[in-house]
Amino acid sequence: MDRLRAQLDRWAGNAFLWPAVVVVLFLSIFPLVLSLYLSLVRLQFVPGGFQLTFIGLSNYRKLFLGSEQVHFLGLAGRTTMLGWLVFGLGVGLLAWTLIGYLRAGNVSAGGLIGRGLAVLIGALILLMLVRTLAPGGRPGTITVTLIYVFVDLTIQYLLGLGLALLCTQRLPGRRFFRVVFLLPMMITPVGVAYMFRMLADTTKGPFKPIWGALGLYNTSWVNDPWGARAAVMIGDIWQWTPFMFIVLLAALEGQSVEQVEAATVDGANSWEIFRHITLPEILPVSTTLILIRMIEAFKIVDLPNVLTNGGPGTATESLTLQAYINWRTLDLGGATAVAYVLLFLVTFLAMVLVNVVRRRVVEA
Amino acid sequence: MNAFLRLFRRRSLFRPSPLQMAVSYAILIGWAFVVLFPIYWLVITSVKLPIHVNDGPVYLPFVDFQPSLHAWEYILVGDLKNDTFRPYANTVIVGSISATLALVLGTMAAYGLMRFRYRPRLGAILSFVGCLVLAFIAGSSGVPWSLAIIAALALFVLIVQTIGRRFQKSLGNSDIAFWLISQRILPPVAVVIPIYVLYQQFKLLDTHIGLIIAYVGANLPIVVWLMRDYFQTIPIELEECAAIDGASRYRTFLSIVLPLAVPGLVATFLFVLVFAWNEYLLALFLSSARAQTMPLTVAAQNATRGPQWWYMSVLIILMITPVIIMAILLERYIARGLLVGAIKG
Q1: Nearest CA in chain A to B307
Q2: Contacts across the A-B interface (CB distance below 8 Å)
Q3: DSSP string across B329-340
C-alpha cells in the first residue's frame, strides 16, 4: 500500500501535465499539417467534385509580390522626413539592443542568430509601417491589423488596470461596478458587432442628434478610412477591456495585505505603494494578459466584417478577415496562406514578448 | 482649513479620502455608463416595432414610443420557438461542461508546470513529428488510416526506445507552456476544415462531445497561462509544510493550493465559460441540426431582408442572462485577504 502511494507520488508530475497535452495534441497536430498542405495547393472544381493541385509557394508569392501585394502589404506613399526619422530611430533602437547583447559577453550562436533575425524582422515591419502610412500610401491588411492590435491593447490594458485599481478600494457599491464592468465580455462577438453597427448608424442610431449638430448628418462617418477604423477599435476596446479588468482584479485581490500595511505604516504614499509593491506583483500576470490578448486581437474578424465589411475599400480589413473573404470565395489556398503569414508574425512577436519581456519581469 | 485638509486625508488603510472617493465614483460611473448604454439600447430595441427602429432613433419606452413584445413572442412562443430552445440547451450544456473540464485539466497542467521539472527530449519530439508525417503521407496515398496510425505509433516507440536514448538534448517547462499557447495563434478560418475532416473520421460531427472537446482544447492554453501566474503568488512554504506533514502531491494540490487560488480560478472560469458560450466559427462548422449553439441563431437573424435588429436583441439578452447570473454569484469569491495570516505561526 505504501509502495503504491510512493509510486503514485512519483507519477504526479506526469499525471498533472499529460491530460492537457493529450487534448491539445489531438486537436492541433492534424489541423496544423493539413492546413499547411492546403496553403500549398489550389482548389479547383472539376465535373463531379474538386481537385487539389500542388502549386508550391505560389499562394505566398501572390501575397508578397503578385496580385494581392497592394491589398496585403499596402501601397507605399511618399515617405516624409518625419517618417524616415521614425524609421531611423526605430532601427537605431533595435541595433542598440543587439550591440548591448554583444557587449554583455555570454554570446551563443543560437542567441545571436535569433536576435539578428528579430532585429531584421522588426526593421522590415517598421519600414512597411512607415512607407504605407505616409501621405499618398495605402495601408495593407498587415498594417491595419498591427494598428488594431497596438491601439486596442494599450487602451484596454490601461483602462482595465485603472478600473481594477478603483474597484479594489473599499468603496460602497463597488460590487455593482465589478459585475457591470464584466458585461461587454459576455456578449457574443457577432452580437457585439451588430450592436455597434446599430449604434454607429447615423440615421437610425441613438447618436443621430449629435451627428446632426456636427453637420455630419448625411455623411456616414464609416466612409472615412480612419473613422471606420476608429469604429472597429472602439468596438474591440468596449468588448475586451473587461477581460483585462477581471484578470487584473483577481491579481490585485490575491495580493498579500501585510506588505501594503507595513508600507503605509512606514509612511509610503499610494503612488509609492503602487510603484514598488503592487506593480511588481502584477507584472507577470500582465505579460500573460498582453500575450493572450495580443494573440486574440490579431484574429479580429467579426467587428470589421459586420460593421464595415472591410470597407471603405479595404481600409478596415484585418488579416483574418482577408483570410475569411478568400475562404468564402473558395480560395482555400489563399486563405490558409494568409493564416500562415499571421501565424509566423504572431509567433515571432509572442516569442519576443515571452523571451525578452516576460523573462526579465518574472526573474526580477 | 482643517476641514479642507480632511478632504485629502485617508480615513484608514483602505478607505480613501472624500475627494479621492468623489473622483473614483466619477470615473466608475462614467465607465459604467459607457458599458450600459449599448446594452440599454439593446434592451429597448428588443421591445421596438420595426417601424420604430427604421424611422430614426427613439429613446424612452412609453414616452417616445409604445413598447411591444412582438419580438419576444416570436422568439419564445411563436415561429422560432423550437429554433430557440434547442440551441439554448446546447449552449448551456456545451458551455458549462467544456469550461469546467478546461478549468480542471488546465489547472492541473499549470500546477505541474509550476512545481515539477519536465524534460521532454528533443529527439523524441522530432521522431514523433517524423512518424506523424510518414503516417500522413501513407494515409493520403491509399493505406487505410487506422493501419497507418498504428504503424507510425509502433515505429515511434521503436525509435524512442533505441536511437532516441542517445540524444539527450531536451526542452524545459517554458517551452511546453509556449507550445500550448501557440496553439491559439492560427485563426479558426485556417483550421476549421482540417478539424471538420478529423471529426468526420471520429464521427464527432454535430455532437455535444465534439464541440466540448474542441472548446476544451481551445481554452486549455489560456487556463494554463493564467493559473500559472496565480499559483506563482502562493508561497511555496505552505506546500513544503504539507509535504513534511506527509501529504501526497495530490493532497497538497487539492487542499492547500486550490483553495488559495480561488480568485484566479473564478476569474479564469468566467472567461473560459464566456468564450465557449459565445464561440461562433467552430460551432458553425462542427454542428448543424442537433448540436447547434446560440451564436449561430443570433447571426442567422441577418436575413435576406437585412438584419432583424429586434429578434437579434432578444436573442442576445437571452444569451447573456445566465452568464450575468453566474458572474453575480461568483464575483464575491474574487476577494482580498485569502492569504492573510497563512504563513504566520
Answers
A1: A194
A2: 312
A3: HHHTTS-S-TTT
